[in-house]
Design brief:
Layout (H helix, E strand, L loop, with lengths): L13 H6 L8 E7 L10 E6 L9 E7 L11 E2 L15 E5 L6 E5 L8 E6 L1 H8 L2 E8 L5 E7 L9 E4 L6 E4 L13 E4 L4 E4 L5 H4 L16 E6 L4 E7 L6 E6 L7 E6 L4 E7 L5 E8 L3 E4 L5 E2 L3 E6 L5 E6 L4 E6 L7 E7 L11 E4 L11 E2 L2 E2 L7 E3 L5 E5 L4 H7 L1 H6 L2 E7 L6 E3 L5 E2 L9 E2 L16
Antiparallel strand pairs: 1-2, 1-34, 2-3, 4-5, 5-6, 6-7, 8-9, 9-10, 10-11, 12-13, 13-14, 14-15, 16-17, 17-18, 18-19, 20-21, 20-26, 22-23, 23-24, 24-25, 27-28, 29-30, 30-31, 31-32, 31-33
Length: about 475
């Protein structure tokens, strides 16, 4: 196999990525670290974490890149180029794009000059996004095969919902304008995935930015301020063509096509309804969805509502399209499903890493359709983990699942105040890729409660060589 980068960025196929060894694969990872809503008046920063078991700095933050502004709320990140540009030797995966969910700034971070010590390459001020695109609150970044960079938006400059897309030039990182065409645009936005072989882009909906900025108010659920649709776009014409209704109060977040670019199906995780839906192309060329997993709510005392949803907040598919993973942020578990039969996912692995329901806490479960008793509090290396499993990232070979516990600073503060006080953690789960199964690596703990400027909320995990939630094969 060619050395990393010899044939352009990424890998030719998902299975090549799964079998290959990327540059610095799993020696380091990058995470955005957020101080908004913690009471600490410091800027967010990008942490470089050493995760090489052979290193003397194993499980330590080895570099911090602070942003020049306060209260950005760094959230998700994406690459300047990836496997969609495989074969183009002029392209390098050397810039990581960090949109700011609240401030609407976009930071371009240079991770190519020194992987272990990133630096800011460019900063795009919100006004450029506002004036050129009429959009705000950028969320998901994907690199396109033509060299451009595309970022989904959640709103307009006034804080209303608006599900459009920002295009950046892949060389200069200037804002080029909007990807979408026409005046028909979804009222809400969040995540997206595209698949040119089926001439489609699929986007999802979280909520109206000015409504969710400071937490979840149950009254807002009945006002249309939160999402319920998968939105379907024509990839060639950039026109919004169809909405798939997943139900009231579903809040569909992360969407993943199967990695095989010929596959016309994938999965979406719905946070509030705690359901996984399979979306697929129908015989007449339209798209549809069917619910394939339902996490039952638990009846509880001592919580905000009498029914506690799992709150599915992140999902992943292994590069061989064999396993689906997702996190239940409130219930506190991560699940692994065998999706060999894509219509009938089969639960094969589960592990509890905190959550709201451990034994001895303020929440008492009075009726549970799945568990016979409340799980024990999760303690690792003497530390009781606050919060629940949230962002997940799978190693390319599928054998290690990395987990962080912060969702979004306002919701962290509302649902897990002790998480904000103590800081988030990063954990690692060993995966059985033959029969299925999950097991906590008891030697792995990155404690962001011990950061120099105080406890911080670490969010999404990225590898320098790309991963199964950022690379798209075309």
């Amino acid at each position: 196999m060619a050395k990393c980068g010899a044939c352009g960025p990424g890998y030719k196929t998902p299975l090549d990525a799964m079998k290959g060894k990327s540059c610095q694969l799993e020696e380091i990872v990058y995470l955005p670290c957020i101080y908004r809503n913690t009471g600490i008046e410091k800027p967010d920063y990008v942490a470089t974490v050493d995760i090489d078991p052979k290193s003397p700095h194993y499980c330590q933050v080895i570099h911090r890149l602070p942003m020049p502004n306060l209260r950005d709320e760094l959230h998700h990140s994406g690459w300047n180029t990836c496997s969609s540009s495989f074969g183009d030797v002029t392209k390098k995966r050397n810039r990581l794009i960090f949109p700011s969910l609240i401030s609407s700034r976009i930071y371009v971070v240079d991770v190519g000059t020194d992987m272990r010590a990133p630096r800011i390459h460019k900063m795009i001020e919100p006004v450029n996004v506002f004036w050129k695109c009429g959009l705000a609150n950028p969320h998901t970044t994907h690199c396109l095969g033509n060299g451009e960079i595309m970022i989904s938006s959640m709103g307009d400059p006034s804080g209303n919902g608006k599900g459009g897309f920002i295009l950046l030039d892949g060389e200069t990182f200037e804002v080029k304008g909007n990807w979408e065409k026409g005046s028909n645009i979804p009222k809400l936005g969040y995540d997206f995935w595209y698949q040119p072989r089926h001439n489609v882009l699929m986007s999802t909906e979280w909520g109206m930015p000015k409504v969710l900025a400071n937490g979840l108010d149950p009254a807002d659920l009945k006002t249309g301020s939160y999402g319920r649709y998968i939105n379907v776009w024509d990839w060639t014409t950039h026109v919004f063509t169809q909405s798939i209704d997943l139900g009231e109060d579903s809040i569909p977040l992360e969407i993943r096509f199967l990695h095989n670019p010929d596959a016309a199906e994938g999965y979406i995780g719905c946070a509030l309804s705690s359901a996984i839906h399979r979306f697929y192309k129908t015989g007449n060329g339209n798209w549809a969805a069917e619910k394939v997993v339902q996490v039952p709510s638990k009846k509880v005392n001592g919580w905000l509502f009498p029914d506690m949803p799992g709150l599915i907040t992140d999902i992943l598919i292994s590069l061989d399209d064999r396993f689906l993973y997702f996190s239940n942020w409130l219930h506190g578990d991560i699940r692994q499903y065998d999706i060999s039969d894509t219509r009938k996912p089969r639960l094969v692995g589960q592990v509890f890493l905190g959550g709201k329901i451990p034994r001895g806490g303020p929440v008492v479960v009075v009726e549970d359709q799945e568990l016979n008793s409340q799980p024990e509090p999760f303690v690792i290396k003497g530390k009781r983990v606050q919060g629940g499993p949230q962002m997940i990232q799978l190693s390319l070979d599928g054998k290690r699942l990395y987990v962080s516990t912060s969702l979004y600073s306002a919701w962290d503060k509302q649902f897990y105040p002790d998480l904000v006080k103590e800081g988030s953690v990063m954990l690692q789960i060993d995966v059985d890729t033959e029969k299925g199964g999950l097991k906590v690596n008891k030697n792995f703990l990155v404690d962001f409660g011990k950061e120099p400027d105080g406890p911080v909320l670490a969010h999404e995990i990225r590898y320098p060589g790309g991963d199964c939630s950022s690379d798209i094969w075309v």
